[in-house]
Each structure stands twice: as C-alpha cells, then as structure tokens.
Amino acid sequence: MSTRDLIGYGANPPVVKWPNGARLAISVVVNYEEGSEYSILDGDPKGESGGESPSPAGPGERDLANESFYEYGSRVGVWRIMNILDKHKINGTFFACALALERNPEVGPEIVRRGHEVMGHGNRWEEYYKM
C-alpha cells in the first residue's frame, strides 16, 4: 500500500489570503553546486555527465566542455543571478553544496550579506537516490 498522499484537498482547497492582497507566492531557489559535481580531477571514476548537452566522454575521460559550464556558473553565473535578485528586491534560497562554497569562498558570505538563505545541499552533488 502506498504511503503517499496523492489526493490532497480534492475539490475543496483552502482559501489562502496572502499579505497585501497578493494572489500568488513564489519561492525562488538557486542551486549552487559548481565545484561539487563528479570530476576526474577529484578522483571520481567519471566526470559529471548531466550537463547542458550529452557528454561524449567515456569513463575516466574529462569533458572540458561540460566542466566549462560549471566553471561559468561559479565565476559568472551566480553573481549575475544575485545581481538580478537584488535589482528586483527578491530574497531567494540557495541550495548549496558545502564543497562548492569551500571552493569559491566569496560566494557563501555574499549570499548571506545580500539577505538570502542558504540551505545545505550536502557536501557534494552525488546520486543520493542510490544510497
């Protein structure tokens, strides 16, 4: 028997009243994992294969194109996202891997300084569903 609730409120959802008459609430979540993904350089048997495009690299081979996506995220992307959130006065939650924050030590304090929350996303980005 399933222990999941797949029914919910059905035809009788609760009436929710948001502050200032808002009709919608949005939660902004940013995954910050750059530097915590699978990497041959970290002694992993494979590099990260879940990137912007399929990886042609075989086991034990580096995929420099895919690595560059992660490097862009830590060098440029995270800062652009924080600037956009600042511009629109939005506080977000950063799902951050500890190793990513350790490898780019300016990011963690800056996330907090700008008023965002940090949510622990493990030490590294691993396939937790296999544990």
Automatic annotation (TrEMBL):
Gene3D superfamilies to which the protein is assigned, alphabetical: Glycoside hydrolase/deacetylase (3.20.20.370)
GO molecular function list: hydrolase activity, acting on carbon-nitrogen (but not peptide) bonds
Annotated NodB homology domain residues: 64-131
Span list, region Disordered: 38-64
Biological processes, Gene Ontology terms: carbohydrate metabolic process
SUPFAM superfamilies noted in UniProt: Glycoside hydrolase/deacetylase (SSF88713)
Protein name: NodB homology domain-containing protein
Species this chain originates from: marine metagenome
